[in-house]
Amino acid sequence: MDPGASGNDSVVTEFVLLGLTKTPALRPILFVIFLLAYVATVGGNFSILAAILAEPKLHTPMYFFLGNLSLLDVGCISVTVPAVLGHFMSNDRSILYRSCLSQLFFFHLLAGVDCFLLTVMAYDRYLAICQPLTYSTRMSWGIQRALAGMSCVFSFSNALTQTVTVSTLNFCGPNVINHFYCDLPQLFQLSCSSTQLNEQLLFVAAAFMGVAPLVLITVSYGHVAAAVLQIRSAEGRKKAFSTCGSHLTVVGIFYGTGVFSYMRLGSVEASDKDKGIGILNTVISPMLNPVIYSLRNPDVQGALRRVFTRRQPPM
């Protein structure tokens, strides 16, 4: 807090993140675990990106969006984990007010683009399977860039709005956040001014960036499932469901953790459950995505082998 102020006139200039543990003996162990998770996530996602760039067979709309998703996963984990690693190695758990808002902005920016891209990928699968004759024109290179750009613009607008409205709140009392990164629910609980407008904006954002995309994804895959079931070839059905299954797994993890993260806005006190959901959302999900997308995809597996062995792709 401002050292020159006291009582009700004090102003919070920094927050204290309680982090994941209060036991000093556990910090080195958690440091190693999170460091390995961070290295695995960055390495795995950049490997996917390198495979997509190096393999001509993967120069398709689906893998264009997957490459962007890999970059977003690296960004999402980089927003939180490096700071967590620093806190594990230091007794100083404080984070400046400005740094907290910056972390909040970039987290919501990247997570929002992630949300829209998952929706675009579902639409891409719908066009590829249900509208194959018009797929190349309805998912041209220009349209791909436009969809990715619109995802960034919408997410930037939301992240900026949420951050600016949070910056108008007064923080004049407790400054301890029972979490390992700054997010809206925890900041709302610490505010000594009304958060009604902020919660309403978050509700609108959740409807626009959460519920609406999830409905579109569900509708898209409903049409995809109906079309796939009409394929007579068992091998064709297996290939289609394999591609869509990977995407649906990622969607389930992303939206599942997101829903639990923001369902607790009305709770008086944050709990360790929030930290567990936060780990799933910011660490586990970005780390698993490369595995999920490459596990049953022979094209990606072949491209990865060629990247690591530096062999040229077949002409």
Features:
315 residues, mainly alpha, three-stranded mixed beta sheet, disordered N terminus
Could you outline the blueprint of secondary structure elements for this entry?
Blueprint: E1 14-17, H1 27-54, H2 61-88, E2 94-96, H3 97-130, H4 135-138, H5 141-167, E3 176-177, H6 184-190, H7 196-229, H8 234-262, H9 272-295, H10 298-309
Parallel strand pairs: 1-3
Antiparallel strand pairs: 1-2
Helix pairs in contact: 1-2, 1-9, 1-10, 2-3, 2-9, 3-5, 3-7, 3-8, 5-7, 7-8, 8-9
Structure characterization notes:
With 315 residues, this protein is mostly helical. Helix content is 72%, strand content 3%. It is built from ten helices and three strands; from the N terminus they run βααβαααβααααα. A three-stranded mixed beta sheet has the order 2-1-3. The radius of gyration is 22 Å and the shape is globular. Its main location: membrane. It holds the Pfam family 7tm_4.
